[in-house]
Design brief:
With 77 residues, the protein is of the alpha+beta class. The chain contains two helices and four strands. The chain is 13% helix and 21% strand. The strands form two sheets. A two-stranded antiparallel sheet has the order 1-4.
C-alpha cells in the first residue's frame, strides 16, 4: 500500500466528521479538544494506515483537510 499523510487546518474545520466517515483506512477521529470556532476537529489516530487517497479532502466542505502521497524513500525526484 502506498504511504500517505494528512494535513489538517484545524481552524477551518467545523467538526462535521465527514472526513472521518469517508476515510477508507480509518486514519482519523474527532478530537475532544476545541478549535478557535468551538468545534471538535479531526486528528490522526492511525498515521501508518494512510494511503494518501485524499478522500478526506475531496469530501471536506470547508477545505480544512487533505491527504497526499509521500515519496518513497531512496527514490530520486
Amino acid at each position: 500500500m502506498a504511504k500517505g499523510a494528512v494535513h489538517i487546518t484545524v481552524d477551518r474545520c467545523k467538526g462535521c466528521a465527514i472526513c472521518v466517515e469517508f476515510c477508507p483506512t480509518h486514519v482519523l477521529a474527532l478530537s475532544n479538544a476545541f478549535n478557535g470556532k468551538g468545534y471538535h476537529p479531526p486528528y490522526v489516530i492511525n498515521a501508518e494506515k494512510c494511503s494518501g487517497c485524499d478522500l478526506c479532502g475531496m469530501y471536506c466542505p470547508d477545505f480544512a483537510i487533505y491527504g497526499f502521497k509521500q515519496p518513497k524513500e531512496g527514490v530520486a525526484q
